[in-house]
Amino acid sequence: MKYFKKLLIVFFSISLVLSCSLESEYALPNNEKIAPELLGKWTDPNNKNDVLIFTKKNRKMYHVSIKVNEEKPDELSAFINNIDGHLILNLIEKTNDRTTNIFYKISVHQDQLTYYEVNDKLLKSEIQSQKDLLQFFQNNIDHEEFFINPTILHKE
Question: What is the DSSP-derived secondary structure letter of residue 28?
């Protein structure tokens, strides 16, 4: 029973970090330089074992390490796209021969990072191209239910 409970907690934590947000095989255009204020180690104030680390990969890309409950971290690449003043984090997850892009709105104020899931429930048809993906964002960016489930992390 303890193992099942621990497994459930790990699954729940991972789902908070990497799922429920819009996913696509297509990426947004990479149009922003690295934001220095995003670099560093971010933790959940309720669970210091959940860690998100942003490091600079190159002038427009981040290396992101996501560690949940002291498990082996997931290593991802990411970049930011600015759509009408909203900073959209495009996480890139590569598994075997498949690439998945996962999208979050982010905002950084002093030592606080807030990220929001992008509501995939507003998607009315399948995304067939980068152009479709960008159009989906542009059409919904101001919809009050587009960014959901805000999560706040603090910089260490």
Answer: P
Range of the domain at 132: 2-155
C-alpha–C-alpha distance, residues 152 and 89, integer Å: 15
Q: Does residue 47 sit in helix, strand or coil?
A: strand
Q: How many other CB atoms are there within 10 angstroms of residue 57's CB atom?
A: 14
The pTM for the full model equals 0.84
At 104, which CATH number?
Answer: 2.40.128
> Which amino acid type is present at position 132?
D
Q: Quickly count: other Cβ atoms within 10 Å of residue 110's Cβ.
A: 8
In the chain, alpha helices (H): 2-18, 130-140
pLDDT tens string 39-66:
999 999 998 889 999 999 999 999 999 9
